[in-house]
Each structure stands twice: as structure tokens, then as C-alpha cells.
Known about the structure:
alpha+beta; 40% strand; 21 strands; 5 helices; Trypsin Inhibitor V, Chain A; 3-stranded mixed beta sheet
Amino acid sequence: MSNFIEKIKRFLVRHKRIFLLLFLYFNLFIFASTIMIIIRTRPAGKVTVPTLTGEKFTFVYNILERNSLKPEIKYEDVFDIEDGVILRQDPQSGEVVSKNSRITLVVSRNELEVEVPSLIGSPLSSAKTKLLNLHTGQRTVSLLTGVVTYMPSDKPEGIVLQQSPAAGEKVPHSLRVNILVSSGSVTDALMPDIKGQSIDLVYDLLVSKGCVVEQEIVNTDSPDLSGQILEQSISAGTSISSGMTVKLKVAYFPIKEHLYNSYELVKYEMKKSDMSLVEAYVEDDLGNRLCYSAKTDGGKEIAFIFARHGNARVSILRNKKLITVMSVRMTQF
């Protein structure tokens, strides 16, 4: 018996490398098999709940949609947190749930009201500053600028003519204040100095002066320059008349993710037809506004940049008839 045991020991010592390799191969096989079993048996259609608490609901809606989660909103009245902030969520972040599951979100509802300041007679830049720096009690709040419309008047260019809501009204601080601004006298129309300004701030002004605006898009490496006018074909101070075309070089920073606020580039190739009036209207959280208007030959591509706030709908019309609708949706907050 002892001889047999000795023979086995000698055999094991002589072939220990082989046995070691077999042991390693066996363990690798067990590990790989375990991984395959986990992958094959993992429940299909599962998603991980993202962190939503503390974020604005309007900013995270797309994230929920992308993760196939259906929000169920419950509101809680608060006075020290701005409107629309997610206070609590259920399920919690990190939990794994089935796609199309409902996620309950408790969202702040702030009934705080702000007195609208008087903007009439102020330059547009000053009016916007007033709206950003309001006080109620010991708290600093802001009202958002809504639609800015230009019209000719005997007032100097850029002066606020009217506002809605009116000065003195008490409104929710989430309300937007629409402003009517003077574009100067029709009989003495001069080209303003718009170099370095953002296209969304001057487009309506140029249209109100009767100009046809053409945009030449120039890519930039700086996101801070996106939407800014680099050059204007008509020099500042030049007399202009209705129907004149002003060509603008507008900087554009190509984006991969669509934040809540960003500058978007729209390109659309028109079908072949006779020359016609082509217009593009954008509708987003700032309302509906004209962002492109020019007589265009059929078969040519139109291109323009606009400032987007939230999800946007771009409607393109030819001779006042709708021909297509494009959408730009937020991809993250």
C-alpha cells in the first residue's frame, strides 16, 4: 500500500505542471460559463433609474423618454425653491426597473408673484437687466424676456415702446414679458452696428427695417462664439431701404448634445420650382417667431442659425404654404 502511495506522489510531482494547467483551465471554464449564464438569464427590457432629484423637470423629460420611463407628476407647494424642481423620486436612482415603468416625481410648485417693472422708455439691454434683477422680500428673482418685436417709430432705435404684462402687475415669476421695441424712423433708416451681436437679437430688427437677411455659416471652435455675427455686408451707418439684402457671416459651433439652450443650424434643400418666398418659423419655450425669410430659387439649400430654448419645432413655408416640419429635441440637461 505504501509503495502505491509513493508511486502516486512521484507521478504527481513529475506531472505537477500539467495538473496546474488543468486546474487553471477548469477555473477559467467555470468563470466563463458563469458569465454566459448571467448574460443569457439577465432580464430583458430593464433600465437603471437615473438621478432626477434636484433637477428641473423640463430639463429631464427627454432623459425619461430615452430610458422608456413614464413620469407621474405630483406637485408640492413651496416658497423657497423655484418652480418645477424635482424634490423626490420613486423608484430611487440606481434601481433597475422594467422599461415603460412609471416613475413618480414630486415637483415643486412655487406660487411666488413678482411685480412687473416699468420698461417703457428704456433701452432694450437695460430692460432685460431690470427683468433679471427683481426683489420680493429679501429674495432676488427674475422674470424671463419673452418675444421681442421691432416696429418703426419716432423713438430712437432700441427703445422699449410697450410691454406685456404692464408695469405694476403681479405675475408668477415663471411668466415671460413680451417687449415691443423701436427700430427707428422709416424715413431715415440706417444700418446698425451688429458685428459681435447674436443673430437672435438682431434678426427681427433687420427685418423691421425691410432688410432681407442672408446667413453665411462659418464653423468655430469656440462655443462662446456660436450664433455671433462675425461680419456684415452693409457697413454700420449706411442708409438702407426696404428690400435691401444684408449678408451676415454667423459663427456656429457644431454640437453633439442638445442642451436646453443652444444655437441650432437648420439646413433644408428646396424642391425644384420657380422662385418663391421661403419662410421658417421656430416654436419653442420662447414662443413662435420668424427666423428665415427670403425669395429663393427652387432646388437651392437654405441655411440659418437660431437660438433654441427647450424642444423646438421648425416649420418651413413656401409662398405661405407649409411644406415641411422639422423638430429639434433636447438630449440632456
